[in-house]
Amino acid sequence: LLAMNSLTRSLWKPLKHVQAAWRRASPARAAEQRPPRLVLGIETSCDDTGAAVVDESGAVRGEALHCQRDVHLKTGGIIPPVAQQLHRENIEQVVKEALDISGVSVNELAAIATTVKPGLALCLEVGLAYSLKLVNKYKKPFIPIHHMEAHALTIRLINRVEFPFLVLLLSGGHCILAVAQGVSDFLLLGQSIDIAPGDMLDKVARRLSLSKHPECQGMAGGKAIEHLARTGDRQRHTFRVPMQHYRNCDFSFSGLQNLVNKVIVEQEKEEGVQEGELLSCAKDIAAAAQHAVAAHIVKRTHRAMLFCIKHNIVSPQNATLVVSGGVASNQYIRKGLQIVADANGFSFLCPPPRLCTDNGVMIAWNGIERLRAELGILNCTDGLRYEATAPLGIDISKRVEEASIKVPRLK
């Protein structure tokens, strides 16, 4: 229990000297004469309890995070009531630690920003309830945050990225292609019609019993797959890339997972091992599964690039692909996306791995973005609710499908 409830003081040092490379020009003189505004961000959408204080220049004043990964690894997956209880036990201390590191009191905050959608309902409830207590006690404005919007905008904390840009969000719960036209202004090009890539890779790792593998002790499922795939032979098994005959930007990973499971069963019979025991070819299956996931993601992203250029949604002279979310830290998938970005004249940007996973910094920064744009700042929170599911932006996926863009083959 002590290990379960211990706080990771911060997964990275407070980025006190990280400044955004730009400031909004209007109203320039007034903004420069006053001290930068501060936002407290709180994140509890899944299995990480995060909090951070960020100022509008882009400096992270203080940050704290409690990660539940080790607990859920033992149970083979996230159990929402367990995650909720861990959030309840840790949220007060996480917020206190972020504030203490920052040297900022709640009274000095311009606003409090919190993830309210989408995510696990029981977990979102904890963050929202705690935040509203602070808001009501200290009479602060509240900024409700869309979790995927926060992931999409995180890059602007550390890079000079102007709207519009193409964004690919990859995580254990989501797979989304969208165009960020502005703060809270997105065009949805495509999304997963079933499970997310992170979820699929975790399930394959579980089916391969990689938690028992001597090279994968303490690794999350997706990380274990990536690690073993580096020394595996991906050509020993070939998995058909999903949805090749559908000229859209949607994704599907459940069928691919079934194909991988079928091969695992065949190999268990061939090697004479029971389910739950390690296969000698686990590395090869991991490599082949990861390659199929990467190929699927890269092809849909390629189509999105071609669609955006064809319809002048992004500028060919200043086109940017931003990739964020937990699965964005997978170096094999990143390499494939870098190749397709280079082939189409897109700059490729990805936040550092520590900012790709869920954290309080991205929520606070999204709050800063909304504060500066004067969007979604609430002085009255009556009737506010969390939402387990929530779309991102305006869905134009049908337009993408109607365009019927053929994607050329890349090496």
TrEMBL record:
<protein>
    <recommendedName>
        <fullName>N(6)-L-threonylcarbamoyladenine synthase</fullName>
        <ecNumber>2.3.1.234</ecNumber>
    </recommendedName>
</protein>
<dbReference type="GO" id="GO:0061711">
    <property type="term" value="F:tRNA N(6)-L-threonylcarbamoyladenine synthase activity"/>
</dbReference>
<dbReference type="Pfam" id="PF00814">
    <property type="entry name" value="TsaD"/>
</dbReference>
<dbReference type="InterPro" id="IPR017861">
    <property type="entry name" value="KAE1/TsaD"/>
</dbReference>
<dbReference type="InterPro" id="IPR043129">
    <property type="entry name" value="ATPase_NBD"/>
</dbReference>
<keyword id="KW-0808">Transferase</keyword>
<keyword id="KW-0012">Acyltransferase</keyword>
<keyword id="KW-0819">tRNA processing</keyword>
<dbReference type="GO" id="GO:0005739">
    <property type="term" value="C:mitochondrion"/>
</dbReference>
<dbReference type="GO" id="GO:0002949">
    <property type="term" value="P:tRNA threonylcarbamoyladenosine modification"/>
</dbReference>
<keyword id="KW-0479">Metal-binding</keyword>
<keyword id="KW-0496">Mitochondrion</keyword>
<feature type="domain" description="Gcp-like">
    <location>
        <begin position="61"/>
        <end position="365"/>
    </location>
</feature>
<dbReference type="InterPro" id="IPR022450">
    <property type="entry name" value="TsaD"/>
</dbReference>
<dbReference type="InterPro" id="IPR000905">
    <property type="entry name" value="Gcp-like_dom"/>
</dbReference>
<dbReference type="GO" id="GO:0046872">
    <property type="term" value="F:metal ion binding"/>
</dbReference>
<keyword id="KW-0809">Transit peptide</keyword>
